[in-house]
Design goal:
By secondary structure, the chain is mainly alpha-helical. The chain has helices at residues 16-25, 33-39, 45-52, 59-66, 71-77, 89-99, 104-109, 119-128, 132-140, 146-152, 158-169; strands at residues 3-7, 10-14. The protein is built from eleven helices and two strands, in the order ββααααααααααα. A two-stranded antiparallel sheet has the order 1-2.
Length: 170
Amino acid sequence: MKMKLVVDGVEVNVGVEFQKQIISIIPNSPIYKDLFHILSQSNDADIRREVAYNDSISEETAILLMEDENYSVLDAIIVNDVAKPLVGLDKLKTIIENSGSGSIDSIIYGIEGYTQIDPVEIFDFIYNLDEPFFNLVLADFDETPDTILHELAISDDPDIRSCAENSLQL
């Protein structure tokens, strides 16, 4: 992607490092939606990831970024408030399975934003992955279904067990 900076008629070609710096300081504002859409098509995953973190993107841009093959981009877009209502269960499962723990707490604590998904289905899916960190986050979240919290309350892991017991008492 070619980028130019124009100041008072003076044009300068901007390299990828400068592009990354520019994208990181563009304000989170709807007036930049068109620019964010163009930047979401960059060859550089770091630039696409920065766009994905921005809540002033269009639904069209969110949909484009949800099809990205880079998991750092997917980790960012999956917790984006514009993208959450557009995410289906299969897409969320795929991202959780492949992205590690990067966004799991944001997914769990922001579960109400995923309007196409039954929260119980996603909690069951996360629990059945049997990942200790995922289970710790589930145990610490007071909206995790009691059936899962009861299972976590008998975990061999003392941190998971303690968090689940505390959540059950709330």
